[in-house]
Amino acid sequence: MAEVLPTDAAVFVLHQWLIYEFQSPSAAEESLSNADVARSRRVDEWVPASKTLVPKSRLASQLAPEFHSGWKIWRNVVENVCHRSQSPLDDNRPRPASGPHNTAKMVAAKKHIPIVKKHKKRFNRHQSDRFKCVDPSWRKPKGIDSRVRRRFSGQAAMPKIGYGSNKKTRHMTPSGHRVFLVQNPKDVELLLMHNRTYAAEIGHAVSSGKRIDIIAKAKALGVKVTNPKGRLTTES
């Protein structure tokens, strides 16, 4: 036997080998208790095989000088391995709290081509920086002598179709989702099968109490919310 594997057959063979290899009569008289059987089963189920592979020659050279009882040595090995990898069957093991915050993980958006914005700066109305009565919002110049309309060099750029975004990424947020407006928790259920494409955005008139219900529903269904902190945070 070149290697010892943590299986039921290997446990029995190793026990017999420790008894007869080191010729310890007292070890053969000891019997397995219920606690020892439970420990061996937990080792069999939860400890990876790579952690318990021990060559026979190295095991004998390490254990022979201080060997007195084969079963005591094997019991210590089992206890050390059990401490190394804690079984989920233990009652003292901390368990995650139940609740809507951990019932489902946030689903990532579908893979898409990179979002490219061809013109990030806003288009300001011509001469809005000179006159207070001229609003910065864009208006196309109509004058017959307008240098902006005639596109003279050095003048402000006008909006045109060439600045349009790719159709595949149009109206897409940086996270890769498109926005879907919700007003109540029932609207979130519409995104259950589309949570990788659309993200929920809570309406501006929704109360704080209903916002809490919407966010809890979205977390339970794995739906992303673009404005989860609206009306729910206070200034310090």
TrEMBL record:
GO terms for biological process: translation. GO terms for molecular function: structural constituent of ribosome. InterPro entries: Ribosomal_eL32 (IPR001515), Ribosomal_eL32_sf (IPR036351). It comes from the Eukaryota. One of its GO terms (cellular component) is cytosolic large ribosomal subunit. Keywords: Ribonucleoprotein, Ribosomal protein. It holds the Pfam family Ribosomal_L32e. Belongs to the eukaryotic ribosomal protein eL32 family. This is 60S ribosomal protein L32. It comes from Blastomyces silverae.
